[in-house]
What we know:
By secondary structure, this protein is an all-alpha fold. It has one domain (5-65). Helices cover 61% and strands 0% of the residues. It has helices spanning 5-27, 43-65. Helix 1 runs antiparallel to helix 2 (43-65).
Amino acid sequence: MRKNSTWLTIVGFLMAGTGFLALVLSLIGIQLSFLTWIDYPGRLFGFVTRLLMIIIGIIIIYLTQTDLEGNDFLT
């Protein structure tokens, strides 16, 4: 396991969690104060950006937890 995988996993969880929370809150009309800039271009852009935050966070988590070298497969 690489040294940075723990930090990248935390970043992935924070990104996915923040995106999910921002998405749910935006559906009921509340915004996180540090993400208000996302809706300036339009509500569709804000929605897509929040979805991308969730998807990219999940991808980061998946890639950091996957053994890409395959050394642990036979052990």
